[in-house]
Amino acid sequence: MLSLPAPAKINLFLHITGRRPDGYHNLQTLFQLLDFGDQLDIEVDSSGVIRVTPTLEAVPPEDNLIYRAARLLQQESGCKMGAAIHLHKQLPMGGGLGGGSSDAATTLMALNTLWQLNWSREKLMFLGQQLGADVPVFIFGHSAWAEGVGEQLTKVEMKSYWYLVLAPDTQVSTATIFAHQGLTRNTHPIKIRAFLEQGGRNDCQTVVEALYPQVKKARLWLAQFADARLTGTGACLFARFDSEADARSVLKQMPAPWQGFVAQGVNRSPLLDKLPSHN
To answer: Which of 7, 15, 213, 253 could form a cystine bridge with 28, CB 3.0-4.6 A?
Structure first.
């Protein structure tokens, strides 16, 4: 059995640079991995059955990204083995932290090891893309500059700041945001150096705050202490701090019923440090 992390990510910025003929959007973003996330316990099952516990609220078992990842790998590899997977959920759903995508990535990486498939990381990334645009970056295993639909990844070494991540009491639908007429879709592409020197914005933030006023309320509260931004399509917000103590001081003042956590940005994924084949 393997017990492995499924780390969160935040989008330090998110520019939508165009809409493709297939309906997907071209984007630019910088994924910063965090040292906080979900945890998965994964054990080989010789029966060939895939079992995932517990059942997530409002998510049919066959739609769970963990189950879909395991079944996809099973089908594509022809493997006759199964798996029992237990999820310790810590990341909020619909928060823009990549929780489901990270769970799927950890599942693929773990079963590749446990089933002794020995697939390359590139092959797993291609498979993961079928499950969601954010899955490849978690298999890639490094904070990264991303383009295309998020699959064109370039390693970036970032300073390890501390982040307070705030989750207001709402979930945001990614599909709703990307389908909204008010979404900016023509931001001019930039280079990595330009972002590092001048920064960027989240093109989804205006639409999210218009549709989900709880998100705007939470951002305005967090903005009292530091520059507060939306991650991904939301609903979570984050602010950067120079020290863990500063971040935790603000977390203690967080109003109910919001939730939050403090985490440190990391360049190398904690998953790679725990997976036997990558130590």
So the answer is: 15
Query: Out of 38, 103, 134, 203, which one is annotated catalytic?
Result: 134
Instruction: Name the DSSP letter for residue 6.
Output: E
Domain ranges of the chain: 2-157+267-278, 162-264
At 215-270, the pLDDT tens digits run 999 999 999 999 999 999 989 999 999 999 999 999 999 999 999 999 999 999 99
What is the value of pTM for the model shown?
0.95
CATH code, 2-157+267-278: 3.30.230.10
Q: Which residues are part of a known binding site for ATP?
A: 92-102
Here the tokens at position 226 are 């530091």
Q: Nearest Cα to 165, choosing from 19, 36, 29, 30?
A: 36
Residues in binding site: 92-102
Q: Say whether 141 sits in a helix, a strand or coil.
A: coil
Is 63 considered catalytic here? Answer: no
Catalytic residue among 9, 38, 103, 203: 9
**CATH class name, domain 162-264:** alpha beta
Quick one: average pLDDT of 201-218? 96
